Amino acid sequence: MLSSRYLHLHEALGLGPMWLNRGAKVLPAETAAAYAPQPAPQAPPQTTAAPQTVARTQPAAAARLAAMAAVQPAAKVSDGPSVHNRPSEKIPPAPAERPSENGNADAQTAADPALLAAIQPAAVMVVSICPAPEDSATGKLFSGSAGVLLDNMLAAISLQAADAHKTSWVKASAAFTPEPPPEQVAAALPQMQAELAASQAQVVLFLGQVFAQPHYAEIIAQLCGGTPAFTVPHPARLLRQPQLKKQAWEELKKLRDTLPPRTGTSTQP
């Protein structure tokens, strides 16, 4: 069935009734409107959803903004190095705050009265940096072949073993080290000064090239004051490197010439 409006449309387009099916029935426009398909009913807009969403979003947004405001000031860094590369984190602690590297260093800040009482007057005070491992094992300083060579060195300049006060700068150490920490050496200075005074030595003989290091010059000067001092390789090193004996002999001759003439002794060239 067709509405009569189609007929008018076909006539206006010049199609005529030939286009229409012969069996088609024409209905009035009012009737055709009743048969026209109706659009599907649309659901009314939900006006309550938006307010609920806004109501839920506002507190979350406010909390997020508050959290950002709290974090941003703490994370703000100057134009200098980043937080992970601040120089202060890489600066080592001050030497005064460092713990002592040897527990015996503090105990040596005062002279040992028992050790001083056993010291006899001597012409020379012989000093090594610390006891050798074999000395610690035997409980005797300058033991073994190094001690024998030391006595021969002294005899070469007309000194007997009793003419020398033999000692070590560091009296005790957890392990042998050819160069103890500077703070440990400085802590033992009062003990060494007391030993030099008790021995009444006229010359100090240092064994080991460690005493020739520039950073030891000041503390050696504090110990010796006006007392002449000489440095030769340690006897243990002379045993390993005999070519150094000539160097040691030259220093020993200077030491011998510094001492006043001794009665009943002869000097060697």
Q: What can you see in these coordinates?
A:
Helix 10 links the parallel strand 5 (203-207) and strand 6. The strands form two sheets. The protein has a four-stranded parallel sheet with strand order 4-3-5-6, with helices on one face. A two-stranded parallel ribbon has the order 1-2. Among the domains are: 2-35, no CATH class; 106-258, Uracil-DNA Glycosylase, subunit E. It is elongated and about 155 Å long. The protein has twelve helices and six strands. The chain has 269 residues and is of the alpha/beta class. It has helices at residues 4-13, 29-35, 49-75, 87-90, 113-117, 133-138, 144-155, 182-187, 189-199, 217-224, 235-240, 245-258, and strands at residues 2-3, 26-27, 124-128, 164-168, 203-207, 229-232.
SS summary, helix count = 12
Order of SSEs, N→C?
EHEHHHHEHHEHHEHEHH
CATH architecture identity of one domain = 3-Layer(aba) Sandwich
Helix % is 40-55%
Oligomer: single chain
CATH third-tier fold name of one domain: Uracil-DNA Glycosylase, subunit E
| Average pLDDT rating | 73
Biggest sheet, spatial arrangement of strands:
4-3-5-6
Largest sheet: 4 strands, parallel
C-alpha end-to-end distance: 151 Å
Q: What Rg do the Cα atoms give?
A: 52 Å
By CATH, the superfamily of one domain comes out as Uracil-DNA glycosylase-like domain
